Please model this.
Amino acid sequence: MNGEESLLQTISSYLDQGRDLAMGWATSPAAWSQFALLIVAWGAAALATRKIVPRIEAWVRPRTEGAGLLGALLRLALRFVPMVLPLLAYGFTAVGEAFTRQVFGSGAVIAFGKRLFLFFAARLFVAHVLADPFLRLLGRYVLIPVAALNALGLLAPVSAWLESLTVEMGNITFSVMALLRGLIAGSLLFWLGSWSNRQSADYIKAQEELRPATRELAAKAAEVVIFGAAFLLLLNIMGIDLTTIALLGGALGVGIGLGLQQIAANFISGIILLIEGQTTVGDYVELDGGEAGTIVKMTARACILETFDGRWIVVPNEHFITTRVVNYSDQGSANRYEAPFSVSYETDIDRLPAIIERAVGELPFVLKAPDAPDCELRAFGESSVDFAVEYWVNGIDDGRNKYQSQVLFAIWRALKAERIEMPYPRRVVEMRGAQG
Model:
């Protein structure tokens, strides 16, 4: 309750001072002269803006259509054009301030006008320059209020009051001002870190001469370096000595040892996978647990597999290290498959391999190397002779439907063309007469 009364008394005191200041300006010839100078400075800035801005736009706008860094910088510069008027007014006022102080011995009104012009510039900066939603939100609720307090001359008193309020966290004591400063700086640093991480990842992944695993490892290393540097810089801004977080580091180590060992194991396993390069993005893999699919993304904790039916499976990295993994390589590698079929016992099986090998070999996706199609006798069944044809293709069979279906169709058509029967199960039933 005492704190609220103290705050109300402080606000009342500032209001009284503001009222007295306004009355003093209203009755002072020097203040009126300074008001007139502010109006002249604003008018001169408006006239200069009317002359300068069209020339700037005429020179810059045609060049913004070009791609690359220069075009991006020029497009960014165009967003600053609305700020020319208040910034010119600020500059003209600063020139006249020295003259006013020499003539009248006072420049309070001029100083207030300069701060007011900066407030207008801050509003235009947030409205026209900041395009990112997060930065615009930060500008609306941080930059503009700070500029308003500065314009009213209350920035220093409010900062001192926030500095006097403290928050204790164990052995560490923070002022509310330090917490706010750290929150704002942290938001900016980690936004900048996210932006830098995206840019560096895009640049690294565009280097096609590097192996996919090397690109992923470089991207992860850049991410760790960027956010690690942002965290250390934030601690420095908040004035925290690194030795004071030694206890926190020890507690974190115990936490990893007790409850976070799986996360740590997956993180280390991810680094091993990226370094070894045995499995990488684009590979089709099958794990002992039954998970199978194409690796579409590798993160610090898990690999994401995309199945043939479009589902995504998140598999922890540790499974790729501790279990058996079948890697069918990427979609462009050669893989061997086989298609089983059967014929009747009346078939001349000596000529069958040539018929089937020729029919399967004519399919456009079947490879001649490393081996041409090979028809093999597998078994003598109860009612059929069982064969299988082995063939090589580029890529992975889509659930044994992408290639094998067409191969079976080719086998069917070839057998029909040669009038070779594909048998169905037969049973011999013996009827015994009744015993008299």
Remarks:
- The CA atoms of residues 16 and 404 lie 89 Å apart.
- Strands lie at 166-169, 172-175, 283-287, 292-298, 302-306, 312-316, 325-330, 334-343, 374-380, 385-394.
- The chain has a mean pLDDT of 77.
- The two ends are 117 Å apart (CA to CA).
